[in-house]
Amino acid sequence: MLWKALLTLLLHKPFGVLSQFTPEPDSRWGCLADWVDVPGVYAAGRLDADSEGLLLLTANGRLQQRLTDPRFGHWRTYWVQVEGMPVASQLDALRQGVVVQKQRTRPARVDHLASEYWQALPEREPPIRIRQSIPTAWLTISLTEGRNRQVRRMTAAVGLPTLRLIRHSMDLMDGGPPLSLSDLRSGEWRAVTPNEQDRLMSLLKRPARNRSRSRP
To answer: What is the pLDDT confidence band of residue 1, given thresholds at 50, 70 and 90?
Structure first.
């Protein structure tokens, strides 16, 4: 049915939830079925179980493929709490690209996250473990690729272990506002608006851009 093919949801995925609807045997993590009772939708991309934030769910297989194809390079923005106080050289290294699993990451957008944003975040459940002798800081990191545990590996590579990771938004690269968590609290989801759905469907008409990957 047409309405089912167009069905797309935005979810604020909680910590401890796999980006799939079936549980894994003997896993300590939950799954999306514990939070979303809508049949026929699947995650377009993934967030690790120990990460939180924006996850797009769709019943449209072409859209799912389009949003996860690295040739299109949508900017995805993460709010990242790291252990330690970043210095300019560490931020510059993240921006320029670091070697992760023998391959250099694409240039990233990296900056300090304003305190008004991270101070408004609710505590994670369960709370992160903080060493009292080591300060923490919040960064905003935007990427156009999504390799396995990439943000965590990148920050670790420059000496800033990730403590908490929240995907905040995804830019559709069409001049409109990014899809974001907006007012969604952890575990909440909503259907995309008609305007957002039109924008998502328009993606299927746009050709991939040529992007070369840098090598170490």
So the answer is: very low
The hierarchical CATH code for the domain 2-71+175-203 is 3.30.70.580
pLDDT digits (tens, 9 = 90+) for 58-105: 999 999 988 988 778 789 999 999 999 999 999 999 999 999 999 999
CA distances from 176 to 9, 115, 171, 211 (A): 18, 26, 8, 22
Protein fold of 76-169:
Alpha-Beta Plaits (3.30.70)
User: Domain coordinates of the chain in residue numbers?
Assistant: 2-71+175-203, 76-169
| Candidate list 37, 48, 69, 92, residue with the active-site label | 48
Token duo for residue 23: 């549980």
174 is catalytic: no
